[in-house]
Design goal:
CATH architecture of the largest domain: 3-Layer(aba) Sandwich
Bound molecules: zinc ion
Largest sheet: 7 strands, mixed
Oligomer: single chain
C-alpha cells in the first residue's frame, strides 16, 4: 500500500508505484531465472552419492579435487552434486541440485564446482548416463598427455573397449586456457570426444567416467586408474596384448552384474574413516 503525506499524493504515488513495479518485475525475473527444484531426492541416492565421494578419495581417484554426480531420481533434467569442497569431507547436507545448464537450484550462498558443466552437458546428450566422475588421478595422465591409448589390460577394465578417447581443449578454446571446463561450451565439446564411450581422458588435466549408476561409475573410475598403472608397467616390458573388442564387450556384460561386491568392500573401508 502506498502512503503520501506531501500534499501531492498523486505525483509521489506514481513514483512509488513505478518503483514498486520495477521491484516486482525484478523479483519475478529472479524467480523465473531460478530453476525449479524436482523436490527432495531419494535419501538412499544421497547416501550412495556421499559414499561415492568417500570411496573415490579412499581409492586414490580424487584428492582435494574431483567430483561425482548422479542424475536426480525424480527428474532426468536435474542432477545432484556436492558444493565445492574436498570429496572426502562431503556429507548429505552438502549435496546441491542443478539443472542441466548447471545452474544450482538450492545453493543458498554455497559455492559450486567450477567444472560442474562436465556433468550437466553429459547428462544432456547421454540419457543412458545416470552418474559421472571427474578426476585428476595421476596414473591416467601419461596416457592423456602422450598419445599412447589407454586400453583394457584385463577383464575388469574391459569397459575401456577399444581405448579411451582424449579430449584436446585447444581444439575448442585455443592455446591459452587454464585447462578447466569452466563453461557449457567446453562441456559440450568434451561430450563430443566422449561420444558413447564410458571414459574419456583430458589432455593436461584428467579424465571423466560415465555410467548407469553411482556404483558402476565408481567401479569404472577406480579401474581406469588401476588399468593405467598396469598398462604403464606392461609397456616397459614390451608390447601388451589387449582385450579385443569382442572380449571387452563380453567381459563388460559380466562385470556390470558384479559391481555390488567391490562396492560393499570399498564402502565399509571408506566410511569407517573419520
Ligand atoms: Zn578438473
Amino acid at each position: 500500500m502506498i502512503a503520501c503525506f506531501c500534499g501531492q499524493p498523486h505525483a509521489l504515488g506514481r513514483r512509488a508505484l513505478l518503483a514498486s513495479a520495477v521491484a516486482a518485475a525484478a523479483t519475478a525475473a529472479r524467480a523465473q531465472s531460478a530453476p525449479a527444484s524436482a523436490g527432495p531426492a531419494d535419501p538412499v541416492l544421497i547416501e550412495e552419492l556421499v559414499a561415492g565421494n568417500r570411496i573415490l578419495y579412499d581409492q586414490n581417484v580424487v584428492d582435494g579435487f574431483g567430483h561425482i554426480s548422479v542424475r536426480h531420481n525424480k527428474d532426468p533434467n536435474r542432477y545432484l552434486l556436492s558444493r565445492s569442497m574436498a570429496p572426502a569431507l562431503v556429507t548429505a547436507d552438502d549435496i546441491l541440485e542443478y539443472d542441466l545448464d548447471s545452474n544450482p537450484v538450492n545453493a543458498n550462498g554455497r559455492t559450486s564446482y567450477l567444472e560442474r558443466f562436465i556433468h550437466g552437458e553429459i547428462y544432456k546428450v547421454r540419457p543412458d548416463v545416470k552418474a559421472i566422475v571427474h578426476s585428476h588421478s595421476p596414473g591416467i595422465l601419461p596416457f592423456a598427455d602422450t598419445g599412447v591409448k589407454l586400453r583394457p589390460m584385463n577383464h575388469i577394465a574391459s569397459f575401456l573397449g577399444d581405448g579411451a578417447p582424449v579430449f584436446e581443449i585447444r581444439a575448442t578454446a585455443g592455446p591459452e586456457t587454464d585447462m578447466l571446463i569452466r563453461n557449457a561450451a567446453l562441456g559440450k565439446a568434451l561430450t563430443v570426444t566422449l561420444g558413447n564411450h564410458p571414459v574419456a581422458l583430458m589432455r593436461g588435466h584428467g579424465s571423466v567416467a560415465a555410467a548407469q549408476s553411482i556404483r558402476h561409475v565408481v567401479f569404472r573410475a577406480i579401474y581406469t586408474e588401476v588399468n593405467a598403472k598396469v598398462q604403464a608397467e606392461a609397456l616397459k616390458l614390451g608390447k601388451p596384448e589387449y582385450l579385443n573388442p569382442k572380449e571387452a564387450a563380453a567381459a563388460t556384460k559380466a562385470n556390470d552384474g558384479l559391481v555390488d561386491r567391490p562396492w560393499e568392500l570399498w564402502k565399509r573401508r571408506a566410511m569407517a574413516k573419520p
